[in-house]
Design goal:
This protein is mostly helical.
Amino acid sequence: MEWLKKVRAPKFYRYWYYRQYMLSKSLGDDDAEHSSTIGSAMLICLQYLGIGSYLLVLTGYKNALLHFIRPLTIKGIIYFIIVLLLCYWLFFFNEKWQHTLSEFQREKKVHKKWGNYYTVIYIGMNIAIFIFLATSLASLI
């Protein structure tokens, strides 16, 4: 079980986690590490839905979004729980979130500025995925 302690999330997810943590702390959240873990899991689920829908549309599957939306009863809940456990393992297990914070707290002001730009772009892309999913669902209903 020692290998579980050594596994780390990719750097862009660690940076995103750091940004979520800092935002939660600035808003007065006392439990920002949990909020960031749940936020990361929600974002990964949204990315899965968006990328999966895009791939199904590209391959010619007409009702791509319904393929993902219909099973969001039990299968979606199970999928979210699995992703939440994965995020727990990558960010929270063995207090990895503290290592992530210490990794990015010493970044230079220029890097922090570029990191803010990347974070805004990342959020914008995920909002675009959400809008695509919402409009596709509305047109299918």
